[in-house]
Amino acid sequence: MLFKKSKTLLGLNIGSGSIKMVEFKDTGSVYTLNNFGMAVLPPDVIVDGTIMDSGAIVNAINSLAANLKIKKKRICTSVAGHSVIIKKATLPKVDESTIELTIQQEATQHIPYDINDVNLDFQILGPCPDNPEQMEIILVAVKRETINDYLGIVEEAGFVPVVVDVDTFALSNTYEYNYETENSSEVTALVDIGANLTNINILDKGVTGFSRNITFGSRLITEHLQKKFSLSYDHAEALKHGCPANSRVSQVAALAAISESAFSLANEIDKAIEFFHNSAVTEGRVEKIVLSGGGAKTPGIAQLIKQNAGIDTEIINPFRNIIIPEKNFDQEYIREIAPLAAVATGLALRSDEAVRR
Ligand SMILES: Nc1ncnc2c1ncn2[C@@H]1O[C@H](COP(=O)(O)OP(=O)(O)OP(=O)(O)O)[C@@H](O)[C@H]1O
Ligand SMILES: [Mg+2]
After folding, report:
1. Cα of 86 to ligand 2 centre, how many Å?
2. Which residues pair with 70 in a beta bridge?
3. What's the CA-to-centroid distance between 102 and ligand 1, angstroms?
4. What is the pLDDT of residue 132?
5. By the 8 A CB rule, do 64 and 40 touch?
6. pTM score
7. Whose CB among 38, 94, 238, 344 lies 3.0–4.6 Å from 243's, allowing a Cys bridge?
8. Are 287 and 262 in contact (CB under 8 A)?
9. Which residues line ligand 1 (CB under 6 A)?
C-alpha cells in the first residue's frame, strides 16, 4: 500500500459544444478508465466563452453524472478562451524574495486585463539561453470572474471543485502522459479544435513555448454548411458528421463545402506556427502537429492541415496508455469519441492531493 498512487479527481470539461466527464479507477499501478461520457449543449448556452445559461449546464452535469453512476464528488475542471492568457516572458534575474512582486509588475505589460481582476500564476523555466542575466518564465493569468462562474456551476451541481485548471495545460498533461515527451527534444504543436475555439499550444522540450487562441472552431464549418445549403443547425451538424441532411445535398458537395471552411482553420493554424518560427526566442521548428477536440473529427482535416503546413499531422489518442476494460466499454465508441475526451482526460489525471479523512 505504501506505493499506492494518490487518488485522482473526476475530470469535468465544460466545453461550449458539450460537457465531458472522465474518471479513472483509483486502484492498481496503471490508470484504468472507470467512466467516460459526454452531453451535447445547445449552441446558445456558452457564447463567446461567456456562460449564458448556467442552469442548463448544471442540469447537463447532473444528468450525465446520474447516467454514468458517478460516485466521485471531487472535481478538476478547466477554463479556456479569452479569459486565459498564457505568455512566455523574460525577466531580469531576481532573488526569491522579490520574484512575486517583479512578476506582478511584469504581468501588467503582458496581460490585457486589470491585474487585480486576474489570478496570476507563473513557472520559471530557467536562464535565458542567450542572456544569463535574464530568466525565462511562463505567465498564466485567468480572469477571476470566469473562475468564479465555473466554481459556481460545479458547486451548484453538488460537486466539490478541487482544482480549476486551464484547457491548454490539461491537454499537454494528456499528451505527456500518453506520448512520453519528457526527455524528447521534439517541438510539437498541440491543436485543440473545439466547437467555438481553437487553441494552439507549442510544446518545446515538453514546455509551452507559445500559446494562441483562434476565436473560432468547428461550428464555423456547421454555419458555413447552413448558409451554403440553407439548412437548419441540426441538419448542418449532421451533414458535417457525415450523415446526409437531405437528398438535395450530395456527399461530394458536402465534402467540398466542409473543406472550404476547414481551410480557413488550417490557414490560421499555419499562421500561428509561422509566428512561432519567426519569433526570436526559439530556433526549434515544429516537427509534428497533434489534433484534438471534436473538430479533429472533421472529414479530411488532418490531411488538409498537414498539406497546408507541410508538417506531419496526427489525431491524439488520449487513452493510448490507459487501460479500457473491454467488458465495460464499447471499444469502437471510445475510439470514435477519443479526440473529444483529450481535455477531460488531462483533468482526470490530476491527483487529489488534498488531505482526506
Ligand atoms: N464525428 C464528428 N465529425 C465532425 N465533427 C464533429 C464530430 N464530433 C464532434 N464534432 C464537432 O466537434 C465540435 C465539438 O468539439 P469539442 O467537444 O471538442 O468542443 P467543445 O470543447 O465543447 O468546445 P470549445 O472547446 O470550443 O468550447 C462540434 O462543433 C461538433 O460538431
Ligand atoms: Mg473544448
Report:
1. 17
2. none
3. 40
4. 85
5. no
6. 0.94
7. 238
8. no
9. 15-18, 80, 194-197, 217-219, 222, 237, 240-241, 293-295, 297-298, 340
